[in-house]
Asl1-like glycosyl hydrolase catalytic domain-containing protein (Friedmanniomyces endolithicus), 306 residues
Amino acid sequence: MRTTTTFVIAALAAPLALAQTTSSKRGLCYVNSTYSNTDDPIWDGGGSDLTWYYNYGYTPTSGIDGTKLQYIPMLWGPPPSNTDMTFYNNVKSLIASGTQIKYVLGFNEPDGCISGGSCMDAQTAAETWIREIEPLKKEHGILLGAPAVTGSPTGFTWLQNFFTACAGNCSADFIPVHWYGNFEGLASHVGQVNGTYPNMTMWITEYALAEGSLADSQTFYNQSANWFDSLSYVTHYSYFGAFRSDVSNVGPNAAMLTQKGQLTDIGAWYLGQKATGNTPKGGAAQVAKFAGWAAVVLAAMMWVMT
Ligand SMILES: *[C@@H]1O[C@H](CO)[C@@H](O)[C@H](O)[C@H]1NC(C)=O
Ligand SMILES: *[C@@H]1O[C@H](CO)[C@@H](O)[C@H](O)[C@H]1NC(C)=O
Ligand SMILES: *[C@@H]1O[C@H](CO)[C@@H](O)[C@H](O)[C@H]1NC(C)=O
Ligand SMILES: *[C@@H]1O[C@H](CO)[C@@H](O)[C@H](O)[C@H]1NC(C)=O
Ligand SMILES: *[C@@H]1O[C@H](CO)[C@@H](O)[C@H](O)[C@H]1NC(C)=O
């Protein structure tokens, strides 16, 4: 925990850039929505600096130009059987049909068993990894992202159990990180991950200040983006996520798009553009629509507050 404190102080001392910044580390955390057709061009169009995306699955999103945003397949959760090879076969066919696959991502929040997590035991995850993920590295030189655990303490325990079950046969190249909470918590968490896995670079694949005020959300966004850009061991980051403010399950003020599908200030900054002044508004049915994807928010927030 002592190293953690050092990280927080170093992070807070980092100066805030005053002009909008661009960064080749930025990617898109893609979630399906009823407005995909209208909103997709925002992310892969000329005004966007994003370089990569993932969509929690292994089929590229038809509305996103894969030559602009490199597709990163994910094996989301437990396969239907212990001989299943669907993910492996799909990635092989993508490669065979000419799609460049440089990275794949392991399981999504396997330690999370309430909405959103893939709720997978470490033993099954290790067996699945060795069968379907590890060969992709040997056969195609694909770099492998460790399972993306939640930002709560159960995440560290799960990941440790996973590597133990792997018995040296899961050669993860980088470690994905999720965080919902304030910047101090994020900095401390990232420091703790680096302290625990000092041999791996990091991707921050889901993060936001959940349910904050608009001002706090913008300050959080700026601080974290500037910090990730300055950290050599963070090679990729994707702010959560590709959806409008009225269906956001992390609160309307964190969103990159307004309820009408216009870029908010945060959305514009993330793409490397100037602030738009568009104010996001909430909607009635926020949680229901997205419950699939970021849901360990509450657990993560409670952990921050304790
Ligand atoms: C965030 O950064 C942008 C430019 O990157 C700047 O214009 C804006 O004032 C900053 N906002 C906050 C709240 O820090
Ligand atoms: C998103 O939509 C695509 C295309 O309709 C579908 O193949 C995919 O399974 C959906 N993903 C999720 C996570 O619902
Ligand atoms: C790991 O690999 C070694 C060498 O191939 C093998 O003997 C061992 O059974 C493997 N362990 C697991 C858990 O797959
Ligand atoms: C880092 O360490 C983990 C856990 O010991 C190991 O499984 C993984 O292969 C290592 N990664 C690299 C890139 O050396
Ligand atoms: C983790 O942090 C330490 C200290 O900043 C750094 O030296 C190390 O390179 C980091 N790990 C990786 C994989 O970059």
Observations:
- The mean pLDDT is 89.
- Residues 122-140 form the longest helix (19 residues).
- Residues 126 and 166 are 5 Å apart (CA to CA).
- The pocket of 2-acetamido-2-deoxy-beta-D-glucopyranose (ligand 5) is lined by residues 194, 198-201, 233 (CB under 6 Å).
